[in-house]
Amino acid sequence: MSDRVRLAVAGLGAIAQSVHLPLIARRWDLFELVAVCDLAPSLRADVGEQYGVPEDRRYADAGRMVEESGADGVVLLTSGSHGDVALRALRAGVAVFCEKPLTYTVAEADALAAAEEELGRPGLLLAYMKEHDEAVWQLGERLAGIDDVRAVEVEVLHPTGQSQLAYANLRPAPLDVDPDAVSRLAVESGRLLDAAIGAGTSDRLRHLYANVVLGSIVHNTSLLRAVFGGLVSVDGARQWPDGAQPGRGPGSVEVTGELPGAVRARMSWHYLPDYPAYTETLTVHHGRGSLRVTFGTPYVLNNPTRLEVVEAPPAGMAAGGEVRSVFTSTGESFENELADFHRMVTAGEPPRAGVAEGRADILTSQRIVRLLAGDEPVSGEAARA
Length: 385
What we know:
By secondary structure, the protein is α/β, with parallel strands linked by helices. The chain has two domains: about 5-125, Rossmann fold (3-Layer(aba) Sandwich); about 130-335 and about 355-385, Dihydrodipicolinate Reductase, domain 2 (2-Layer Sandwich). Helices cover about 40% and strands about 25% of the residues. It is built from eleven helices and 14 strands. The protein has helices at about 15-25, 40-50, 60-70, 85-90, 105-120, 135-145, 160-165, 180-195, 205-230, 335-345, 355-370, and strands at about 5-10, 30-35, 60, 75, 95-100, 125, 150-160, 235-240, 250-260, 265-270, 280-285, 290-295, 305-310, 325-330. It has an eight-stranded mixed sheet, with helices on one face. A six-stranded parallel sheet has the order 3-2-1-4-5-6, sandwiched between helices. Helix 5 (about 105-120) runs antiparallel to helix 11. The longest helix has 26 residues, at about 205-230. The model has no long low-confidence stretch (mean pLDDT about 95). InterPro entries: Gfo/Idh/MocA-like_OxRdtase_N (IPR000683), Gfo/Idh/MocA_oxidoreduct (IPR051317), NAD(P)-bd_dom_sf (IPR036291). This is Gfo/Idh/MocA family oxidoreductase. Belongs to the Gfo/Idh/MocA family. Keywords: Oxidoreductase.
């Protein structure tokens, strides 16, 4: 293998067009785009032409692309569980860069772990971009010298995806997707959701699990895991005002639990369609001060994340004062994770998050959805999580 990793990209929608494909082109020194895949023939043609991918390397089936394209790595940007294609890739010796969620079920994650073990080297990077944010790295360094963290709070103010991507001039939604292919994917997703949270569960709960807890809140779950070791217990979860339904805004979700060291944690996630701009904060309170990380709209490349530190002034200064310091960087977290993927493929460096971390996040997500169910019966893996 040359130093440039040959990449195949599956899923040519919003995240591919606004973030990953432009960054792959930017990092020409690390990557060569050799194949693309999408269910929509028009997207395959238009994006393939834009990025110089030959017609015979534009695929409708991701598994076939993995097996035929000659790629060293596959970038999975499709919706839903990524278990099937990721497993086919690992068994073919192709490295996997996987957007969230890793899978819908623990069983799928266990199959990936077995395939990676058989491969004999790190084979899958789970692409939680906030784990690759330089402000988060700085937060971790600051916390290394603090032993009295009291509470951690994550708050997300989430407008529509369309408003976040209004700047990006995305291609129109394709109208030529094969409906039979969509139906097959829906049936398979339904089967996996049955295994995860139980056959017969309501549309509300299935939507919450797949699209909210695993589709968005998992970014916060993974952030707590990466920085603090993860939630050791989940003791509260509620959704309001009136239940999430497919095609409607999912409202607000709040999750409470405990981190290692008896540190209390709360995640508050609010879907606010008309909110001016996406905002997320991670706040840490300890015995001598506070730290706050503020994330902006994730789809705007090189949009600086801000770390603010509040602490007491040095000894000898007037009592009652405070010192505030700020760290920002224009380093791009999505680009950092691609660079980490390159190192995993070429040098065998373990990723920050892989199959094991994804499995842990699925378990936490199942514990959350079990509490969100309220009086509704839950079976499958979530009943045992």
